[in-house]
Design a protein that fits this description.
disordered N terminus, alpha+beta, 14 helices, 4-stranded antiparallel beta sheet, 7-stranded mixed beta sheet, 28 strands
Length: 558
């Protein structure tokens, strides 16, 4: 059955669409090499023409004709005008701010325009800031299959053609999905294996729908290239075709053919072979599958009450309670809490504080209930959290140091009682300073990575948060003294970036913060479940409040 569809039919009133992005003849902004393009995708909200950033593709080095692997997934709604803007930038540094990079061109269109084009393929000129053409963008849309299977694939090459004059080839593979019009769209690249004609690439995972959109007999094209450092002239070694059915049955050992060589030499046989070492297909459960199966999200807030926040009685304090505008702590709590509370049926949230002298004795604590009830540290709903926070500010003396490990271990003690995944715990830490117990915090995070738990850290104020990036572990797994985190469970963001980019619009700041800090949670949930071999329940048990199901919280640490 064809996956091509026509806008306006009842069957596609609300369906998932995947957009692939390619560009041709981009401007060359680099002096000694070609541009390194990245595409930024913007959308608008219903009734608004103001764009906000939705997604970014990967950066492709040294290419004026990029085919981006990253896809854009959107819900298509016929009844809405879904505006889209695509901007291309030449990225020459790790800085995320777009204004420090060279602008390559843009296109404004709508999702309906893409779907209404022939074969759901829209090709339009990119324009610069003056409206002059500066290359071409090609957008292709396809309805996404509901297939949730995931394939783990492992390949090796044998006797590949030698392309380098002074050494062996540096081969990598590119996988392409066949479209409805028999064109091909890139969907995966392997890593480069240096200086070998017999490479063994690392196993990789892809959703089956990424390779064939759920059609096991749809053609998959595999190309092999010899990587060159200049980026613009990777040498073509050969290509072959297969399909998901062959891969799943282990029948995908194929010859690489270079059509030009084959046309020139009658004796030509192939340019090497690609062998499938292993193919494992597993059903991929979604975050929503686990929510539907009865999994509860449990939200805990931990608030930094150290002296570096400033005297709460002064207007320049980060804890100053302004009756007319929320402070940054209140904004961060509201942004994340508004989303999380919808997934917690009893709406009871423990709220912890750290780094303050607390009543009645004035001892320093790094793990105290903000409502000062150690036996029942729960607050009812978002309103209860904010009320307890404001009341606490008037009763504690800000002190220090900034220790994270006690509150992380506090939540971990609850999380470890649910190895079955029936409950998942999200800890929001809001802080203004540098971590004082970094070594203990690393170990706490590493231990928590084995549990059904995620940690969100929001940095408020002007401090530098360089150490937080290590905990975030987006580039490499967090490790300490030989111990390595099983999963990346930490997401860190500095709140000031959301304030400046939103022009003082509090609602916009909170919405963008919530989107970014919560974006990784569904993947962290499914990652934990997969690591433990847990499937969603088909007959979820009634939810029991953790307020009564678990032992009382331990007394405050001193």
């Amino acid at each position: 059955m064809s996956n091509t569809f026509q806008p306006g039919t009842a069957a596609v009133a609300a369906t998932q669409v995947e957009i692939s992005i390619s560009c041709r003849n981009l401007k060359d902004k680099d002096v000694l090499s070609k541009s390194d393009p990245l595409c930024v995708i913007y959308t608008t909200t219903l009734g608004s023409k103001q764009y906000h950033e939705y997604q970014r593709t990967e950066r492709i080095e040294n290419s004026l004709n990029p085919d981006f692997v990253t896809k854009v997934n959107l819900t298509y709604l016929f009844e809405e005008c879904q505006r889209l803007k695509f901007e291309l930038y030449d990225i020459d540094s790790a800085k995320s701010q777009l204004d420090v990079h060279d602008f390559l061109g843009k296109l404004e269109t709508t999702l309906g325009a893409i779907l209404g084009s022939s074969n759901n393929r829209l090709e339009k000129p990119l324009t610069d800031h003056h409206g002059k053409p500066c290359g071409t963008i090609i957008l292709r849309a396809e309805e996404v299959s509901d297939c949730k299977d995931e394939a783990t694939l492992h390949f090796r090459g044998r006797k590949l053609d030698k392309k380098d004059f002074l050494g062996k080839s540096d081969p990598y593979l590119v996988f392409h999905r066949c479209n409805e019009d028999n064109s091909f769209t890139i969907c995966h690249k392997t890593e480069v294996i240096k200086n070998t004609l017999d490479p063994v690439w690392r196993p990789f995972k892809l959703l089956v729908r990424t390779l064939c959109n759920g059609d096991l007999d749809r053609t998959i094209k595999v190309e092999c290239f010899d990587w060159d450092s200049d980026g613009g002239s990777h040498d073509f070694i050969g290509e072959a075709t297969t399909n998901m059915r062959q891969l799943s049955e282990g029948r995908a050992n194929f010859e690489l053919i270079n059509p030009k060589k084959k046309a020139k030499k009658k004796s030509y046989k192939n340019s090497g072979t690609i062998e499938l070492l292993n193919c494992v297909i597993q059903k991929k459960h979604s975050f929503l599958d686990f929510i539907t199966g009865g999994m509860q999200l449990n939200f805990t807030v931990a608030i930094d009450f150290t002296a570096s926040n400033g005297n709460p009685g002064h207007t320049n304090s980060l804890h100053y309670i302004n009756p007319y505008a929320p402070n940054h702590y209140e904004q961060a709590i509201t942004a994340v809490g508004e989303i999380i509370q919808d997934y917690d049926s009893d709406k009871l949230f423990p709220v912890l504080g750290f780094g303050a002298k607390i009543p009645p004795a004035g001892q320093v604590s790094h793990e105290f209930p903000v409502n000062f009830n150690a036996q029942n540290p729960f607050c009812l709903g978002l309103t209860g959290i904010l009320q307890a926070y404001k009341a606490c500010i008037a009763q504690v003396q800000l002190y220090g140091p900034t220790n994270f490990s006690p509150v992380i271990n506090h939540v971990a003690r609850f999380a470890q009682q649910y190895p079955d995944g029936s409950n998942y715990f999200v800890l929001l830490i809001i802080t203004d300073g540098v971590i004082s117990d970094m070594e203990m915090t690393k170990m706490a995070v590493i231990n928590a990575s084995k549990l059904p738990m995620s940690i969100i850290i929001v940095g408020v104020g002007p401090a530098e948060f360089d150490a937080m990036e290590e905990l975030d572990a987006d580039k490499q797994a967090l490790s300490y003294r030989g111990s390595v985190a099983q999963r990346d469970i930490v997401q860190f963001v500095p709140f000031r970036e959301y304030i400046t980019s939103s022009g003082g619009n509090t609602d916009m700041s909170q919405a963008r913060l919530a989107k970014d800090v919560l974006a990784e949670v569904p993947g962290q949930v499914t990652g934990f479940m997969e690591s433990k071999g847990i499937s969603p329940s088909t007959s979820p048990a009634p939810h029991q409040s953790l307020n009564t199901a678990l032992p009382s919280a331990p007394p405050p640490a001193v």
